[in-house]
Amino acid sequence: MSEQKKYVLPESEIPTSWYNIQADLPEPLPPVIHPGTLQPIGPDDLAPLFPMALIAQEVSQERYIDIPEPVLDIYRMWRPTPLIRATRLEKALGTPAHIYYKYEGTSPAGSHKPNTAVAQAFYNKAEGVNALTTETGAGQWGSALSMACNWFDIECEVYMVKISYQHKPYRRSLMQTFGASVTASPSDTTNAGRAILEQDADSPGSLGIAISEAVEVAATSGGAKKYSLGSVLNHVMLHQTVVGEEVVKQMEMADEYPDVMIGCVGGGSNFAGFVLPFVRENLVNGKNTRFVAVEPTATPSLTKGQYVYDFGDTGQMTPLIKMYTLGHSFIPAPIHAGGLRYHGMAPIVCHLYDLGLIEAVAVPQNPVFEAAVLFAQAEGIIPAPETAHAVRTAIDEALLCKESGEEKVIVFNLSGHGHFDMASYDAYFTGTLPDYEYPEDEVERALAGLPQIA
Amino acid sequence: MSEQKKYVLPESEIPTSWYNIQADLPEPLPPVIHPGTLQPIGPDDLAPLFPMALIAQEVSQERYIDIPEPVLDIYRMWRPTPLIRATRLEKALGTPAHIYYKYEGTSPAGSHKPNTAVAQAFYNKAEGVNALTTETGAGQWGSALSMACNWFDIECEVYMVKISYQHKPYRRSLMQTFGASVTASPSDTTNAGRAILEQDADSPGSLGIAISEAVEVAATSGGAKKYSLGSVLNHVMLHQTVVGEEVVKQMEMADEYPDVMIGCVGGGSNFAGFVLPFVRENLVNGKNTRFVAVEPTATPSLTKGQYVYDFGDTGQMTPLIKMYTLGHSFIPAPIHAGGLRYHGMAPIVCHLYDLGLIEAVAVPQNPVFEAAVLFAQAEGIIPAPETAHAVRTAIDEALLCKESGEEKVIVFNLSGHGHFDMASYDAYFTGTLPDYEYPEDEVERALAGLPQIA
User: Fold this and answer.
1) A231-235, B203-207, B344-348: lowest mean pLDDT where?
2) Among residues A368, B54, B192, B224, which one has the fewest Cβ atoms lying within 10 Å of its Cβ?
3) Domain membership flag for residue A451
4) Which of A197, A227, A257 is the last residue before a domain boundary?
5) Inter-residue contact B213 to B192 (CB < 8 Å)
6) CATH code at A354?
7) Are residues B335 and B426 in the same domain?
8) How far apart are CA B49 and CA B46, in angstroms?
9) Confidence label for B265 from pLDDT (cuts 50, 70 and 90)
10) Do residues A278 and A263 touch, judged by C-beta distance below 8 A?
């Protein structure tokens, strides 16, 4: 009768420290390499782009890092976020599985992204930074950083991937409401952008290109501006662990433990933040949860890429990072999940995948939207197209349980809502969405051009 | 340091009964009149449109009415909703006032509307109804009823005011995701719609016209379809009291009591649901809270209308209701707050206003958006254009406190988010929003045509 639906922690239970998986890795992360010297980079190499506090977090081996009080003070505006038992979805599927979702779409910007945006804005402001540049795909990250910068009185310049800029005009409006300036990328305002436009005036853009533009603007600002990245880097994964740490407590409230945890991956931050505290439980406390990263067949970095050193951006402005990559010159097909259109993947996620500690799967666009609509009809919440990848795989796992009769506990990260993505739902309903397959030739070309580093 | 931001009740504290103000009114509500006989209507007159359970609630004098368990079961998906202390807004304004907002935008449909949509769908299904018709302005109500009908396996036909249909295409997509059919109103599918189109082929529509269309479809369906209204009626106000009952408990948690409570009014339901339990405290327990209903200058029913008998719809298909009205043939200016474009007002709200138990104020469009942007920048949440009317007046009250130095407790209902309304923010930013004033001549014309009933 009065079945519990939501597991809501009191405000006092917001985690007060982030969890740093680097302290517990069975092997350390491969170093980040300077493309000129081919030697591991040091803090000075990153200082033009990031404040020292974030550079320190990037390489920290401390297991727990305190969340600063001004960051916690803002987290309290929407955290802790709910963990919800998807009883109606379970019934709609007829599965014996217990399905739970962590709902990060309750943040004001609509996704998990503010967890790191607020932290990054805080550390930048603390070191006197008054302007930040960044890129955004679907606009989830751009709106989160715009919001955070507004709270810390920092100017924010966003390079938004052109295809998403066109697909999602209201994400741009949202960023402008928070006071940010937004430029469609590739643009003619940077060398990196102009170089792409010369090759292809109609380029839909990509996260890799937008990163180049934002990095260039910061790097050439004479110290006036720094750069902020919404995923991929270790400090971003760190900040997102506030999500998983809450889920640890919420699963205790529910008196269950995850058999499988699922998140979508583009750069990897919502997945990592969600699962890392449970990876710790596997590594340190003998637990045995499976972790599944879900990517689009259009950008299958984990499932089809190579684990090699590559640039983080298309314009080759970043250091070389060892990651599963499709090649930095790879331009992903214009899927609606703009936040997943990235050629690489977070080094931490790649390392865990390489060590066999997590799994990965790639899914095409139409089955993803089919799952999103099924979820929306059952649970009322419209998932972002990125998030819908996790929904697809959660439903697939639940359907396997239906076949096997297993009462598995399936927990996924509903990382963001799709309120600004309804045009993609319209496209799905009219049957006009292509199911992009793994673009073998294009990936082969892009990978062939990579620097050879042992 | 660790200042409390959110007052979140446990799931077990969701109110289990709605509060019926009719039990405590100092004078009873004026009866609803049959336009043919000019006699008070009885249950049989309403039976073609509503299930008996809702007709009974419409006239009930019971102080508390139990919320059915299947309705509570769905409420638990998002209720209780948070009460949030707007500390950042207070700082931005430099006011000594304590500002709180009840955030109903956390429901899956994005507003308070599901509180009654779920209840209405439940009672209809319980009496064997398998199809409902309704109207919607901004689309908040239409999406809520679409969602609720989907959960109870009821077909849902929505007539959406044409200007909102054009302003807010993604609200339509949302309703379609929940399986509803959506028609722009006035349409050529009904006599009422065709009559309007003959007079004005470019009619932007209004809630009054869309109600006529939806009522006509139900009334002429031979019993196959019933009709559902998202505001105005007593049973809708009743269902919305779950909001105010939560606020009663949350103010206790905060150890404060409201000096003034503020809500926007179109039909009156979010305002009524929010304040009625506190009106009870004024009437029964000697409290002294002020209640301010905020309407647009474009449709100032309370502040400029007459308290007379009028039709609830433009096509004169409903009974005659005593309310503050601008006249049923009044076509409101195309403001972006589509949910407030109604010529009349809930009889309960009108009665309280007539008795001097609540206040009302009208505000123009641009100052409303100015307040919305100020609020969004401070608190991160984008208010719906309707809701932004309440934000404007809450800020005005807080600024008065700044002048007087008073530490008043101001509580307003943030009834919905504006994620589907970003086009209106764009229009505000580009300076193209007109500030419609009170349309004196037009109201005079529309009021002159009313039936004369003592």
Assistant:
1) B203-207
2) B224
3) no
4) A227
5) yes
6) 3.40.50.1100
7) yes
8) 6
9) very high
10) no
Element (H, E) at B43: helix B43-46
Which of A200, A227, A254 is at the close of a domain? Answer: A227
Is A453 a domain residue? no
Query: Mind listing the pLDDT tens digit for each residue in B356-409?
Result: 999 999 999 999 999 999 999 999 999 999 999 999 999 999 999 999 999 999
pLDDT of residue A338: 87
Which of A150, A419, A424 would you mutate first to test chain B, the one with the most B CBs within 10 A? A419
| A106 and A120, same domain (yes or no) | no
Number of domains in chain B: 2
pTM for the predicted model, two decimal places: 0.95
- How much is the pLDDT for A3? 66
Probe site for chain B from A9, A67, A77 (most B CB atoms < 10 A): A77
Amino acid identity, residue A275?
A: V
Beta-strand ranges (E) seen in B137-278 are 155-161, 181-185, 226-227, 260-264
State residue A292's pLDDT score: 98
Name the β-bridge partners of A306.
Answer: A325
Residue B71 located in a structural domain: no
Summarize pLDDT for B235-264 with one digit per residue, the tens. 999 999 999 999 999 999 999 999 999 999
- Mark yes or no for CB contact B423/A170 under 8 Å: yes
Same domain, A57 and A145: yes
Residues A382 and A314 in one domain: yes
Mean of the per-residue pLDDT values of chain A = 95
Report whether pLDDT(A9) > 70: yes
Q: How confident is the model at residue B454 (pLDDT cuts 50, 70, 90)?
A: low
This complex has an ipTM of 0.94
Mean pLDDT of A54-63: 97
Domain shared by B187 and B263, yes or no: no
Q: Is A149 on the interface with B (CB under 8 A)?
A: no
Q: Are residues B412 and B371 in the same domain?
A: yes
* B423 contacts A380? CB cut-off 8 A: no
Looking at the structure, tell me whether residues B94 and B146 fall in a common domain.
Answer: no
Whether residue A339 contacts residue A298, with contact meaning beta carbons closer than 8 Å, is answered with no
CA B242, CA A79: separation in Å to the nearest integer?
23
Domain that holds residue B410: 5-13+78-110+237-446
- Calculate Rg over the CA atoms of chain B: 20
Tell me the pLDDT band of B331, cut-offs 50, 70 and 90.
confident
- Shortest CA distance from B143: residue in chain A: A380
A306 with A434, same domain: the answer is: yes
pLDDT at residue A300 is higher than 50: yes
d(CA A376, CA A396): 16
Is it the case that residue B432 has pLDDT exceeding 70? yes
Q: Is B84 on the interface with A (CB under 8 A)?
A: yes
- Interchain pair B77, A380: CB under 8 A: yes
For chain B positions 193-222, those within 8 Å of chain A (CB to CB) are none
Q: What is the mean pLDDT of residues A301-314?
A: 96
> Which positions 336-375 of B are in contact with A (Cβ < 8 Å)?
373
Q: Is A420 on the interface with B (CB under 8 A)?
A: yes
User: Among all residues of chain A, which has the CA nearest to that of B92?
Assistant: A151
Q: Inform me whether the C-beta atom of residue B4 falls under 8 Å from chain A C-beta atoms.
A: yes
Is B451 within the bounds of a domain?
Answer: no
